[in-house]
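Troubleshooting entry. Yesterday's outputs looked truncated, so today I'm pasting the complete records for two proteins to confirm everything comes through intact. If either block looks cut off, that's the bug. Protein one:
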Amino acid sequence: MIIPALHRQVVPLDRDAHRRLHVRPLGDWRIAASLNSAFIAAGEMIDACREYPIVFVRADAGAAGAPTIVAPVAVFGLSVQENLFLDGPNWRASYLPAVLRLYPFVLGRLDEENLAMCIDSSWEGFSESEGQALFDEKGEPAELTRRVKDQLEAYEGDVQRTKQVCARFVELGLLREMRFDLQAPQGRTFAVEGFLTLDEEKYRALPDATVLELHRTGLLGLIHAHMISLRNLQRLGQWKMERMATAAANDA
């Protein structure tokens, strides 16, 4: 899944063009400084809910009469291009969403049916002399490249399952508009809008048979993970106020 704020120059990995390319370990997360949220797949929601608020956003309003397409995202900041999980070059959470763990690699769509392993060629961690090689001396994919390719394909499978999960939530009418208000120092108030969360009233009104279906298909656990994750909005609010206080002190 390509995220423009993160994957800035995506090109297919090519054995001729990138035959001598090496990749160094990623240790500086300031590349994600303007990333205030990222897609979170269904398979990682249980782990992610402990540290990130997980909400749903509209990915496509759909044609007339078609259902709205939604996607779950982990929230990193409360303003546009704000990432509160950054502490200098470091990431302030032990769990890193898969789309970030896989960086600078990503699957790109060649057409409606075909995907290709790609890289963000703008990343400074690529080198022709340092790090792990992407291809061996014969021009064949190195062990790292083969392993990452398998991870990308597994992740794409989870992305497709996540689409089905969200489609079921939309079908059941379980999502509603949500607003988060943050009371900042000096009486300032910030409102975070434009996302969807579980409609608890509609959730409680579900027929028993539907709840059993959600349980058996694993969707009930994802609903609970989403609900637990919303507590992390308060922590983001605290981090934002701390950052505002630091900025005010530096300006004084």
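Protein two, checking that the full record survives here as well:
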Amino acid sequence: MTNGLQQYVLERRARVNRALDEILPPADTRPATLHSAMRYSVFAGGKRIRPILMLAAAEAREWGNGCDQLGAAIECIHTYSLIHDDLPALDDDDFRRGKPTCHKQYSESVAILAGDALLTLGLLTLVTHGEKTGRRDLHAKYRADTMAVVARAVGTVDGMIGGQMADLEAEGCVPTPDLVQYIHQSKTAALIRASVVVGSLCGECVEEEPALHNALCLYGDRIGLAFQIVDDILDVVSSTEQLGKTAGKDARQAKATYPAMYGIEGSRLKAQRCLEESLDALGVFSDRAWALRGLARWIVSRAN
């Protein structure tokens, strides 16, 4: 990551963290155990890559101000998915972001409710955000569009929940290219794509500039898939200390992953191809998309 991009990421991450602190109930608000667990999981670390991608897309559309709470909403929804993903009934992991998972720090019942609460808070924030901003009062259609984009990304047909179900059912099965593609596009890429699309919706005149919006949709789709392919590779080649979560679990649980299907080198080639397609999609933008380009390269080259 270049110095310029690193500074960009640090500044946007700080903005998102401030917005998260604003929308999350204080830890001592009744029921305090639940609100403490929500804050524990949200502030346990994390790259904030989804909200940062959202902000970068908004800036590429020449609107980056007043969108921080939208990024915070997406991060709440992402954290919900991690809390539930780590539960014993699903992927059963004791560590996330280098710390005990929510159900290990608190209890299974608290973790379930904390995940539910973060999903609800994220969706509520999407609906209420923008009622008063520096740009304009966001009309009902805008709020409905952002809600619809994110809700589909979380849903059962081709969103996170559907991808998680398919992932569970595929354990121990012989993977097929179609199955692996569906799981990864749904479980991970869908919310990353949605983050970029919401950022595009922050821009003015989406209807008048469909080429720019469609380019960001394609970028989000390709870089979202690349993100999960790299995650699969890192699960094989990295240590638990490097990842901040238990390494090698995919193979032990016989998960349907890209390395299981194509091997490490084949998976790296597919991630590289996704990167190239994401960068090609940004060809309609000028230097305004420099952060999106840098983030895409970093996602594919990252070590954790």
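Both blocks look complete. Sanity check on protein two: The chain has a mean pLDDT of 89.
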